[in-house]
Every structure is written in structure tokens, then in C-alpha cells.
Amino acid sequence: MGCIMDDAEREAEAAGTTVAREEEDQASAVPSSTESGLRKECTELNERYLRLVADFENFRRRTAKERESVAALATERLEHLGRRRSLAATSNGPTRVVQEKTE
Question: Cβ(96)–Cβ(85) under 8 Å?
């Protein structure tokens, strides 16, 4: 015992080292395929994320443009309605009757 190893201890140590090396080789082989799968999954998720970000940016721009369009249309219609009401106030025709009933 101590510092001196007998043949049985050397064989056990060599066998243990051999078994450990085989386990390391198998373990390193498995992670490379697992690592490859994880890299592929990571790439796919990153691409999906980038597409979602782009879709959201497009959605944000489109809704901002639609909001501006609706605001412009509403302003135009309100101005038109204001002109019609002022015209109706100055006339004595059928538009005058409509204005009196809406007030």
C-alpha cells in the first residue's frame, strides 16, 4: 500500500482509466450530436424571433398609417359637416328644417 503499487492495483487503475476514457469518449460523442441539435434549434428560434420582430414592426407601421388615415378622414368629414351646417343656417330651404331639428 502507500506509495508502492502492486500489479493488481496497477491493473485496476489502468482498467479504471480505460473505462473512464471510454466513458469520456462516449460522453463527448453524445454532446456533439446534442450540441449540433441545440445549435440547430437555437438558429431556428433566432430566425423565428427575427421574423416576429419584423412582423411586429410592420404591424406597428401599418396601424400608425391607418390611424393617420382615419384621423385625416374624420377631420375632412367634420369640416364638411361644419360647412353644411353653416350653409343650412344661412338658407331658408329644406336644409334649414333639418338643422333646426338636429339642434
Answer: no
